[in-house]
């Protein structure tokens, strides 16, 4: 059981060495998730975290910078992060993509 009492599966420890000294691009349209990610990654060793709420701003930023890695939320309201993923692939930047969907109650 975790601290909240749920029976969730244990999470493997994060390898902080992966993030150490890296500049990370985060594409996340949910403000609370973006803030949490922006706060957590430096504690895991990230040198700089650049957060963007939409694909247009992330693509614009990628014209001037090449991050070491990126974390992309796939569904961004009225569009997806596929174009940003294509730009990252073209630059040889590794990224992780997350897909979250709401479950109707």
Describe this structure in words.
- By secondary structure, this protein is α/β, with parallel strands linked by helices.
- The protein contains four helices and six strands.
- The strands form two sheets. The protein has a four-stranded parallel sheet with strand order 2-1-3-6, sandwiched between helices. A two-stranded antiparallel sheet has the order 4-5.
- A hairpin with a 2-residue loop joins strand 4 (about 75) and strand 5.
- The two termini are about 25 Å apart.
Given as residue ranges, the uncertain stretches (5+ residues, pLDDT < 50) are: none
Looking at the structure, the CATH topology is Rossmann fold
Computed CA radius of gyration, to the nearest angstrom = 15 Å
Structural class: alpha/beta
- Helix count, per DSSP? 4
- Major beta sheet, specifics? 4 strands, parallel
Overall average pLDDT? 86
CATH superfamily placement: Response regulator
Q: Biggest sheet: strands side by side, in what order?
A: 2-1-3-6
The appropriate CATH architecture is 3-Layer(aba) Sandwich
**DSSP strand tally:** 6
| Helix content percent band | 25-40%
Shape assignment: globular
Distance between the termini: 25 Å
Provide the CATH top-level class: Alpha Beta
Instruction: Give the topology string: H per helix, E per strand.
Output: HEHEHEEEHE
Oligomerization state of this entry?
single chain
The share of residues in extended strands comes to 15-25%
